[in-house]
From TrEMBL:
Name used for this protein in its record: Carbohydrate ABC transporter permease
This protein's GO CC annotations: plasma membrane
Main location: membrane
PROSITE patterns xref list: ABC_TM1, PROKAR_LIPOPROTEIN
Residues annotated as domain ABC transmembrane type-1: 75-264
InterPro entries in the record: MetI-like (IPR000515), MetI-like_sf (IPR035906)
Subcellular location as annotated: Cell membrane
Organismal lineage: Bacteria, Bacillati, Bacillota, Clostridia, Lachnospirales
Length: 278
């Protein structure tokens, strides 16, 4: 009896590990294929059946990618966009989340319902009015245009509201008794208690902003004002695409995010765990 239970437990464990190993292979394979393709020639990349390894390992595709795109400008634009989107999302979402969670004012529930409605709507429906606003103000082809859609985050407001809801009201009341006004209570007492939630929001805002393609491609048509994702999209030809060069450019575009992950790996993991827990 014990041996059969042990055998079934072992089979179940093997099955679970096999499932996760297969999942990891499926997720990693595109990156491995991108890496290998970046060293191939156009002819090699179009062969059927495809060759797994390139015939010769050379850096010509990376040189062509760097010659085709102003990578320094793309890196700068992407870094500025990500930085300001993260700052705006964390600051404004924190203030709005605190107001919805702890303050009492008329229309609070209605306003928060509108925030939830905005979360349910696809972001694509806001592209046309946002672009028209920026175009009429002459703000296209600018860093502000890249940051504009991320200044206010409905998800961030909801996420941090939930974090503030988990803080007992007695803490704020104690701050009031100690002589703090509303702003001091928020800045000195309540906000520090949600640092972990703010870090999680910052992580996911940065990841989303870094990979955003549609909005930067529409609002900034000047190549020197594009981001890495929209700049790479210009490598796609109308009738044909040099896939090895595009894969080389994609690898170069991945470098900042990989470096960021290596330095802030703990924050990334905590952010994923916290968001999953919420």
């Amino acid at each position: 009896m014990n041996s059969s239970l042990e055998r079934s437990r072992r089979i179940r464990t093997i099955g679970i590990y096999a499932f996760f190993i297969i999942g990891c292979v499926i997720m990693i394979f595109p990156f491995v294929w991108m890496f290998l393709t970046s060293f191939k020639t156009v002819e090699e990349s179009m062969r059927i059946p495809p060759d797994i390894l390139p015939e010769s390992w050379n850096l010509d595709n990376f040189k062509d990618a760097m010659a085709s795109l102003p990578f320094l400008a793309l890196y700068k634009n992407t870094a500025l966009m990500v930085f300001w989107r993260v700052v705006c999302a964390v600051v404004f979402s924190s203030m709005a989340g605190y107001a919805f969670a702890k303050l009492k004012f008329k229309g609070k529930n209605l306003l928060f319902s509108l925030v939830l409605v905005q979360m349910m709507l696809p972001s694509q429906i806001f592209i046309t009015p946002q672009y028209q606003m920026l175009a009429k103000l002459g703000l296209t082809n600018s860093i502000f245009a890249l940051v504009f859609p991320g200044i206010v985050s409905a998800f961030g407001t909801f996420f941090l509201r939930q974090a503030y809801m988990g803080i007992p009201d007695e803490i704020a009341e104690a701050a009031y008794l100690d002589g703090c006004n509303q702003w001091q209570t928020f800045v000195k007492v309540m906000a520090p208690l949600t640092k972990a939630s703010m870090a999680a929001l910052a992580v996911f805002t940065a990841v989303f902003a870094y990979g955003d393609l549609m909005w930067p491609l529409i609002v900034n048509t000047d190549l020197n004002m594009m981001t890495l994702s929209s700049g790479l999209a210009t490598l796609r030809g109308q009738f044909s695409t040099n896939f090895p060069v595009m894969m080389a450019g994609s690898l170069l575009a991945m470098v900042p995010m990989v470096v960021l992950y290596l330095f802030f790996q703990k924050q990334f993991i905590e952010g994923v765990a916290m968001t999953g827990g919420k």
